[in-house]
Amino acid sequence: MNQDLTVGRPENVLWKFCLPLFGSIIFQQLYNIADSLVAGKFIGENALAAVGNSYEITLIFIAFAFGCNIGCSVIVSQLFGAKDYRGMKTAVYTAMISSAVLCILLMIFGIFGCDALLRLINTPEEILGDSKLYLDIYVWGLPFMFFYNIATGIFSALGDSRTPFLFLAVSSTSNIAVDILFVTAFQMGVSGVAWATFLCQGISCILAVAVVLRRLKSVKTSGHIPLFSWTLFRKIVVIAVPSILQQSFISIGNIILQSVINTFGASVIAGYSAAVKLNNLVITSFTTLGNGISNYTAQNIGAGKLPRIKEGFRAGIKLVWVLSLPLFLAYFFAGRWLLYLFMDAPTGTAISTGIRFLRILSPFYFVVSAKLVADGILRGAGIMNKFMVSTFTDLILRVALAEILSRTILGSTGIWCAWPIGWSIGTALSIYFYRKGPWKNTVSKETKAPEISPLHQN
User: Fold this and answer.
1) Could you tell me the maximum CA-CA distance found in the chain, to the nearest angstrom?
2) Cβ burial, residue 174 (10 Å; 0-12/13-18/19+)
3) Treating both helix axes as pointing N-terminal to C-terminal, what angle do 230-262 and 384-405 enclose, rounded to 10 degrees?
4) Which residues contact 74 (CB under 8 A, 6 or more apart)?
5) What pTM, to 2 d.p., does this model score?
6) Which of 42, 133, 266, 364 has most Cβ atoms within 10 angstroms of its Cβ?
7) 210 vs 194: which has the higher pLDDT
């Protein structure tokens, strides 16, 4: 059901809208967690390392899908908030067509370039074959991932966070069952893990796109609806490209980090692969909540209700901190038992690496979650230059410090220490930029909001 995020108490509106998003991303992350879990428990430590190693490269493709999701979602949100339903439909069709072209180009790159990327990041020879096999299958499933992301972006733009939650709940739990079936009953090894994800994500994509098209058809508009608009394409690009660059640079940074980690051997890779899945579950969840706040911001900007942005920021901080507390406690004090989910017979090095990683990073979830709330508002308002400054500062610091600190007596622990430093400085910048936004002088819901362009740039 479509929901207008421009009316109602902001805290109630955001919590009602964002909590299903949080549940959705938990289930979406089960795709990757299930792959690692089944690989580690039913195949072996090298298979876990191979899937984890490949995951860093898949993040490049995910970055582009995420950017298309955000670009489409923000523009559709603004048009929905402004009640421009005709333009909203054209924006959806424009996003789908342009995303299809981009997806084809990425598939060509993936088919011919993944092997070189795996060698570039110092992939150990004992896991190279399985890593390449996993990626080959993954690349053929890119259209499903792209169009599923577009569909979820549209649902969010229309204020509907419940429908994607239901899709993901069913498809993710099915993925676990199919993973186990292919690996244990059919003895397909790492390829079984990849094919299970391919099939389950494909089914959820087809269903999600079908529901989106039906939902759009139910929105009454008059006259011919253009299938493509260069004007809307440019507006989508203004939001999408910085988001793609953000995620791409994060992916490239992760690949550089992976190349540093790979020099410490398969056991450290396996421990990191298990722990980083748990960490990514948290960060991706908070990023998705930030995307929800972007939709909230964009709808209210479209409706000219800037005072609600500040109220939304406070509600968003409260939400992510409430969620951060149990995640921190679980990872810091029960990390060992969570890591055992991924490993059948872990070496001492693998398990100690994972525990150390979680204990260093988890206390800083309160910090990075605040950054992602502020980033969500900046992105929803189209203030992309400052959003990029804060993101790149965080990433560059993490990559540079990981390289430097890993060469000291800290060894691999130095890599994990780089995360909190980058997060803390990036958070300070994001909150500073948020506080300087065009809503800073609005004091109440009754105050007339100053005008702002839907794609305001500072």
Assistant:
1) 69
2) middle
3) 10
4) 157, 239, 294, 295, 298, 379, 380, 382
5) 0.71
6) 266
7) 210
